[in-house]
């Protein structure tokens, strides 16, 4: 075998096969490499860490995987003290608990959250008694370093800005909920008050289906639903002006129902047809188009990005 250094050897030779009369000869090339490796385990039956992966505990002597065979002797096992290994560092917020011996830290950026014992202890090969045990994770310990004013100021400023933004958003959400509750209460009271005068008008305010009418009883209201029917009305000119007529009936003042005909039921040349105002001109009824716009405050515009 050829020595490669660092406790490594290899066997890579080309076979020399001599042919002969009336014989069939063949060659087969098998290369192998021998290397010393270190296996690590924490107890007799614990998982063994190796270059080819984890080996189940309890296996003695050898194991093969993907043409690689590892052989070891239990007599060569050495017990070594544990060593601390650095894993991660970051800036976290510290939280107190009801128990003075238990605290919590949380690193939002790295999404790390630990609950630890506040008692300082010594671990492995370290001579310092400044490590804290993470509760529920036997092999994870923490070492905390208080930040100086120079280090803490940017973090505190960022945290303060986030807290103020969150408080503002929560305040707006509470105001919106309060306005929604007030709008619902106002809509309920408006519907009851309007239904006392006109059930059809109150139903239109609530955007109920067509041909719906509210009937108010005290502080409660019920919905009366009818089936709409198209009818052709005629016009009769009386001393009080033009009157819509359908047989022995005319339109009710609410514009959706019929009422017994009266020659002077409608005045001033205006009628209510299906909730809209109409006027009589040139032998027909025409809808009134509003021409006066109610003045009010301008709506606020959204801020551009």
Provide a concise account of the structure shown:
The protein has 305 residues and is an alpha+beta fold.
Q: Strand pairing plus helix content: what structural class?
A: alpha+beta
Instruction: Quickly count the domains.
Output: 4
Give the percentage of residues in beta strands.
25-35%
Distance between the ends: 73 Å
* Residue runs with pLDDT of under 50 for 5 or more positions: none
Strand order of the largest sheet: 1-2-3
Helix count equals 2
Q: How would you describe the shape?
A: elongated
The helix content is 10-25%
Summarize the main sheet. 3 strands, antiparallel
**Count of distinct strands:** 21
Average predicted confidence as pLDDT: 82
Cα Rg: 46 Å
Order of helices and strands: EEEEEEEEEEEEHHEEEEEEEEE
